[in-house]
Design goal:
The chain is α+β, with helices and mostly antiparallel strands. About 30% of the residues lie in helices and about 30% in strands.
């Protein structure tokens, strides 16, 4: 996959094998996984496996999460982007908007900035009809971001015992 999105402060680029240590640092932090099933990774092999899954998404669907780097420093701060999702909602497939950041970068608006760029890419470049997202009902920050970027609340669903809010945003350029 050969995509690079730029925002005012960020570069979103394809994830690669060299991101394993950064993934491990992010996903081994229990605070990062509070609303993700409380199951942080415990080995770099788990992070490498996650990256393999992203690379497979690129091959199979031409889309997948992107590494998020600060423009001014080149520092990896997390990931964001779209993913063709088939696991979270078993009853249908959809394009999912997501983001995850290292804890030290929370609260700076990076997830919002990256999410807006991802929506723009999905609607304008990929011509997707709609993009969906989910967030644990108790994850105030994520729910706030999704509403702020225009995602429309569309009910709730349960995933592995946790209640999640469901969001949809339709491409207004495609009817």
């Amino acid at each position: 996959m050969n995509i690079k999105l730029e925002t005012k402060r960020l570069i979103l680029r394809p994830i690669n094998e060299n991101d394993a240590q950064n993934f491990y640092e992010m996903d081994s932090n229990p605070k990062v996984h509070i609303y993700l099933g409380n199951n942080p990774v415990t080995s770099i092999e788990q992070s490498k496996s996650k990256i393999e899954g992203v690379l497979q998404q690129y091959k199979d669907f031409g889309v997948g999460r992107l590494a998020m780097e600060k423009k001014d420093t080149g520092e990896f701060i997390g990931w964001s982007g779209l993913k063709f999702e088939r696991e979270l909602r078993k009853e249908f497939d959809y394009y999912d908007l997501g983001y995850r950041l290292k804890e030290e970068f929370w609260g700076n608006g990076y997830a919002t900035e990256a999410a807006i760029a991802s929506l723009d890419y999905g609607f304008n470049d990929l011509k997707l009809k709609e993009i969906c997202a989910a967030a644990d009902v108790n994850h105030i920050a994520s729910n706030t971001i999704l509403k702020k970027i225009g995602m429309q609340p569309s009910g709730t669903f349960e995933y592995e015992g946790d209640l999640c809010n469901w969001y949809i945003l339709e491409n207004t350029q495609i009817r």
